[in-house]
């Protein structure tokens, strides 16, 4: 069985940043917080790439929930 990714799993932030790169996102700032069970990531990025970025992030196995605030 494949282990469930945790916020402290190696490469989770890298996977998210790769997805954002594929979406053409310009990352202005990131804030990351984790516990042993879950983590959160707040990203300030250009609005133009937000729709594609959401699609890319939602495809990641590590994603639990994605929300967009304007």
Q: Your description of this structure?
A:
The chain is an alpha+beta fold and 70 residues long. 29% of the residues lie in helices and 21% in strands. The protein is built from two helices and two strands. The protein has helices spanning 12-22, 50-58, and strands at 27-34, 39-45. Helix 1 (12-22) crosses helix 2. The longest helix is centred in the first third of the chain and has 11 residues, at 12-22. It starts with 11 loop residues before the first helix and ends in a 12-residue tail after the last helix.
- Based on CA atoms alone, the radius of gyration comes out at 12 Å
Flag low-confidence runs: none
Q: Helix/strand/pairing class, anyone?
A: alpha+beta
Measure the end-to-end span: 39 Å
Strand % is 15-25%
| Amount of helix | 25-40%
Shape: globular
Give the ordered list of helices and strands.
HEEH
Number of strands: 2
Features:
about 70 residues, alpha+beta
Secondary structure elements and pairings:
Blueprint: H1 12-22, E1 27-34, E2 39-45, H2 50-58
Antiparallel strand pairs: 1-2
Helix pairs in contact: 1-2
């Amino acid at each position: 069985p494949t282990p469930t990714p945790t916020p402290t799993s190696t490469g989770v932030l890298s996977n998210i940043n790769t997805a954002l790169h594929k979406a053409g996102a310009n990352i202005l700032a990131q804030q990351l917080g984790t516990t042993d069970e879950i983590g959160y990531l707040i990203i300030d990025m250009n609005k133009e790439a937000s729709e594609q970025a959401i699609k890319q992030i939602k495809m990641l196995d590590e994603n639990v929930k994605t929300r967009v605030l304007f």
